Amino acid sequence: MEKVINRFQRLEMGSVEAEEFDTCMMDLVPRQQVLEAKKARRPLINPRDNQSVGFMEAYPAAQVELRTALKEAFPGGNSSVEKILGTNIPYLVAACEEGFRLAGVAKGNLRQATTDTEILGCRIPKGAEVFMNYHVNYIPAPVDESKRTAGSKAAAAKFGDGFQSSTGRDLGAFDPRRWLVKEMTDKEAFNAHASPELSFGGGYRGCAGLKLAWIEYRIFATLLILNEDLKTMSASEKILIPATRQAGCCTQDCEVYDQCLM
Question: What is the C-alpha separation between 71 and 92, in angstroms, rounded?
């Protein structure tokens, strides 16, 4: 990640050799975010664009629990980026995972069959395109378990079926605790396999921006919850927000766009 950031900085300064230019897919991720932020004249990480704000507003109990966990990890208040990323805080990781799950970073994907195959008893001819739904916010339709492949059955036997446990209850709600388990020492730990979930795209290389998204989300959530107490706005307050803008300010091209929304 440090190499990616370093190369991006050199790209901005024009000091990258021609043969090195744009050879790394990860270069496009931070560059695209910075360019979009510059065009909109807003900070790189904008609270209004982050759905975690909405989740924390809607589920105050989770917000309080996350703040408690963060204050225990950082008793002095705000910490350095290195400590935020390096400190083991299971509830913070669970809150980020739950945020990615409900936000639906990658809601679905198309895959084309390269050969005749079968999925849960349904024949798929070569060349057919299959839509894969990644956004799991409700219990999916039941399937005939005997139709599953040996690999699927082995995975279920190893990690368990999250939909059949307490993890699978109320999937439409923001509940970081569905990702936490008790260790032998009675301490809580994050369990990435607690529930079937795929927030980001797949492919041979996985999602190029996954690690960057995790870094941004973890830093953002930590600083936000340590410094702000988010409250749910009433319907009347939400209606009044547009009226607080300055006259004629209706787009992000306005130089005082951010101030107009305060």
Answer: 11
